[in-house]
Amino acid sequence: MNNTFNIQRFGKILKHDGLNFFPNFILSLAILWAIPVVIYLFTALMPTDGTVHIYDAMARINNIDFLLKIAIIIAPAILYKTCNDSRKGIGYAMLPASTLEKFLSMVIFCVIVTPIVYIAGALAIDSILALINGPYDGFALSMYFDKFSQIEYSFEQHGTKVMVDDALPLIISNLSPAFMRVLSILGTLMLSSIFMFGNMIFKKRKTGKMIGILILLFIIFMIIFINYVANNEAFANYFEQINEDNVSEFIIRLIRIMMNVAMYTEIVVSAVLLWGIYRKIKTQKY
Amino acid sequence: MIKISNLDFAYKNSQVFKNISLEFKKGNIYGLLGENGVGKTTLLKLICGLQKPVHGSVTVDGLTPSMREPQFLQNVYFLPEEVITEDTTPEKFVQKIGVFYPRYDFALFNQLMKELEVDLTKKFNELSHGQKKKALLACAMSLQTDYLFLDEPTNGLDIPSKALFRKVISQYCSDETTVIISTHQVKDVENLIDPIVILDRDDVLMNASFAEITDKIYFEYGPERLQNAYYTEMLPGGYINVMPNTEHLESNVNIEALFNAVMKNKETIKNLMK
Hints:
The complex is a heterodimer of chains A (286) and B (274).
Chain A: H1 7-45, E1 55-56, H2 57-79, H3 90-94, H4 99-131, E2 136-137, H5 140-144, H6 151-157, H7 161-164, H8 168-174, H9 177-201, H10 206-230, H11 233-240, H12 247-283
Helix pairs in contact in A: 1-2, 1-4, 2-4, 2-9, 4-9, 4-12, 8-12, 9-10, 9-12
Chain B: E1 2-11, E2 14-24, E3 29-34, H1 40-48, E4 55-60, H2 70-73, E5 76-79, H3 90-98, H4 106-115, H5 129-142, E6 147-151, H6 159-172, E7 178-183, E8 196-200, E9 203-208, H7 210-216, E10 217-222, E11 231-235, E12 238-244, H8 255-264, H9 266-273
Helix pairs in contact in B: 3-5, 4-5, 8-9
């Protein structure tokens, strides 16, 4: 018998976790799906002075993506809430599947199934609302999978327009949709890994504790980073060289560095945390 | 066979087992007895791989439980003392987990539910504590694993249910199945268990079959308290005296009296049974 991985057994654990997925998680997803509906009703019913409120597709896509992040954050603590509980987790630990199979199933449901189910539902609701003659302009569905080709829009929306006005065409040509897509997928993986790991190490208030840790880490990182930049002569000299002529080049270089740092950080953090989750499933005591 | 060798185990600052060695042979229904807090549940968890020994080893048919390999897991089932159930019917629950166990028998589950008088159609949260326990027992037995570990299975059962419990265990467990029943309510498992393992703090005081016990210990029912008895207890109509069986007389084991005798004469009886 292969004790590491067996495709039939893996199918069984997928089915087992799948049977837990919908009854336990669907209510949480329904709440997230309902939020755009509430926004829609609020926009549609808001008293106006004759002007028509337009809620365009790209803005709705940003909202869907924000709520998707919430779905990813809460998924592990809802779907695998009891798996490290000393009493309630015994059934999960004793289930005759290998650690690798249990781990892969957990990853599939938290990283793949949750986003797919959420996005499918959110886009379906958006499409239904867009069919009604109301404030919705366009279908989010038609743009969602091509959203990274709309980078220009994002920059215009996020208040950096003045700063990057001249650099905009250069930035757009430097950030390919394919690269942004990879970055987004890695971001989803990292976000999910962080909260799956939190789910495995904490017994209670798992999501809250993990958010607390992230805020703490962010503060510590910012203090260290600001101190480093402030006391580093090379940085000071570099900033002094920036003028009107080379600001575009500087911004492009900065964005490229940030994107690369983000990509490598996402890869390394995800890999380390996924390994930690695997070890925790294997060695958890009950 | 379950083999425990030189096992040390501790929870943070509290030592539970110190260099204990023990064997559980296949096809028996073991009674794991001991006072509260001696480590009965911990021993079961170590055998199931839910805990890992600090030193020494635990093997089940040559496999290390703490590795939690599917080959091991599909042959064991642990029914904890505390009833933890899902928001579903016992039927759906057993169908969900049963697919992982090669000898799982749904017809047997239905039969056991009928024998144990549990309503098949109700969800776990609609059943009483005792009903839940019986439903989970039916689930556990229908998986037909080689090893079945029951932690305080009769806690919370009413008197007729305790009788039903004894009936299904003795009737439906195959000769190949090893059952370990951890309990401190020895009367509940009387006429069911053989051999008996008695645990003490850090130690195993006894691991013997009824034949081995009665070979060395005599249970005398008489009108008076005997001086050389390990333990004497007043019963309706007389006394039970637990004493050394120097004359190789035949007698029936009274588990409660035996347990009390062992607790009062730990070293003497431990050495006697070696």
